[in-house]
Design brief:
single chain; 84 residues; mainly beta; Ubiquitin-like (UB roll); 5-stranded mixed β-sheet; 1 helix
Amino acid sequence: MKITFKLFASLTDYLPQQHRNANQLTLEVAPGATILQIIEPFGLPEKMVHLVLINGRYIAPTDRATLALQPDDVLAIWPPIAGG
């Protein structure tokens, strides 16, 4: 099944070079794939996976290993952001 995978801010460095400007890519993933299964091949440091949304809905850290994505879902991830 296909999903859209988006990384923001410093996490875009973990995308393949040709997708960094757009900060997203379409992925073919196995049915029932969880958030952690999808991000694992990209090598994102766990401490950098801060805000996770599926179709604009916040996903708590406790649900990221078990919540399965559906076809055409949009998975978006932001690192912790400091401001001032």
